[in-house]
């Protein structure tokens, strides 16, 4: 009996064959999609609140008034807490302080990582936030609360809160940079806690001191978060281009 011919063994896989398709998306694409989704949601919420403030929607004004009157009574009665709020809002969480923190972070990026493009992007985003804040204030022209016995004073229009907007932008961008550069667990948790306390705390102090309506602070948070999402989107889009500066180091 003759042996049956056997099929030749399959050829070994070639090193030039294409790798299997990955089921997941590259990190920069995932970050870009998240930034787009966040920008859309925050944009809608920001515009909606802006319209309600501009047309002086009565339910919103009534709620603002109730909150303002209650917190002002507490501020007049509890002078120690009021003084602490003034120190926090004028020195710790003041927009100038936040911009100095941003400048220090930009300087660190240049000094330790030679990340000039990222440093300029960070500084430019914070500068844009200031322009947006002042432009919206001028366009809406909302008056601040007026009290017969004020515990603090402030200038310019009320909406949105510049303190809340600046703190949100600076803290949001710095948190994103820490996450992107792989900050350790302890540093990350500390930074998140500090950012949450700062962003929430500055909003509380502005309402407590009677210089902003509650919706002014909410507007500052919304517009600030919107600017963070747009800045991240611009950063990710710029890094995807061939030959982009700091494409790998960022």
TrEMBL record:
Ranges for domain Phosphatidic acid phosphatase type 2/haloperoxidase: 118-232
Keywords: Membrane, Transmembrane, Transmembrane helix
SMART domains found in the cross-reference section: acidPPc
Gene3D superfamilies attached to this UniProt entry: Phosphatidic acid phosphatase type 2/haloperoxidase
Transmembrane residue ranges: 34-55, 118-136, 156-178, 190-211, 217-235
InterPro entries, A to Z: PAP2/HPO (IPR000326), PAP2/HPO_sf (IPR036938)
Parts forming coiled coils: none
Domain of life: Bacteria
SUPFAM superfamilies (UniProt xref): Acid phosphatase/Vanadium-dependent haloperoxidase
UniProt xrefs under Pfam families: PAP2
Pro residues bias locations: 1-21
Region (Disordered) residue spans: 1-29
UniProt keyword annotation of Magnesium present: no
The protein's name: Phosphatase PAP2 family protein
Organism whose genome encodes this protein: Streptomyces eurythermus
